[in-house]
Description:
17 helices
Amino acid sequence: MNCIQVKYKWVIKMDRVILHCDLNSFYASVECLHHPEIRNFPVAVGGNADKRHGIILAKNQLAKKYNIQTGEALWQAKQKCPNLVIVNPNFGLYLRFSALVRTILADYSDLIEPFGIDEAWIDVTNSAKLLGSGKEIADQIRERIKKEVGISASVGVSFNKIFAKLGSDLKKPDATTIITKANMKDVVFPLAASELLYVGKATNQKLAALNILTIGDIANADIKLLKKRLGKQGEYLWLFANGFESSPVSAYGADNGVKSIGNSTTTPRDLQNMSDVKVVAYVLAESVGARLREQGLKAQTISISVRDTSLSSFTRQQKLPYTTDCDKAIIQTALALFTHHTKDHFPLRSIGISVTDLTQGDNDQQLSLFYNQEDIEKERKIDQTVDLIRQRYGFNKITRGIMLTDKTLSGFNPKDDHVIFPIGFH
């Protein structure tokens, strides 16, 4: 039992038993299982190098010994390891294996919260009363995944989600790590600040500027200073570092609604200017709009993602004063974001467009004096007509003139090529 102060009121909370299961080198492990002839070689899963989708997505343990990094170019990985075996990703296969693992987890709890295709939190607080301690359950899960699925997993055991996730990252492959209130200062505090969930590159740099280098430094920092420098995120990180995170693990399948729709692409050549960006952005925006209309949804927030040739990346978003499923609104908002935020980042390697704040398309909404509803309806009818033509005669039978200016950049179909897989985002 622990006692924490929230808004000057003391709240008593019973300790929970939270696991975080992380499938080791998931994509690469599945490929090695299906292709036993390569399992004793350094293996990486990556895109098509000829089409410039040449980024390492995952690698096996043998490849990790060559310091091959996720996100680096295939040619860079080949320089480090000339005998590296590179296979193209097969997301349909990975989804099937992910589902097999989720079936095993469901034998221990109905409180299962995915965090990507290869990770999940499991609340076994009640199960522990019947099935043994958190460590015993974690070890059972690891053994079953090995025997029944054929790949390995690392599992973190703790009293909250943040430390359970941290535990699964500490020992790999095929290990159980326990972080308790008794050992957290010894195990967690010496770790680099970047090891804490949600401390990305930019946040880590801001913390370093304050001479905050470890998770213990975050825990012992002045929370007012963190909030001043990092905003609300500073407060969250202080709570996480001190073990005060208490969000629940969602029930498996409790909310399978679509939270976002988007597409991104690594381009066949670097994008050198906004003219290049416009060609690709129109293709992506049309795909997003078509998928919204197909599912009867409208969106209010438009987001872009950008990765430059140094592999630095960022996202930006804008909330509209109305909901929309029209290509024109999506592309205009996205291009405004690209124009404002990418001018200092060229050349670009990949871009993406996504939409969030989704509602059912037929929901009533507040009309605006600044937007002509008749024009919006005309745009929607045009989009629906284009959708129909493409469904009946093929994607390339009708296209915008801008896409003909560079067929190398526009020659892809993100809607039909897109694979949706479950992502728990928090």
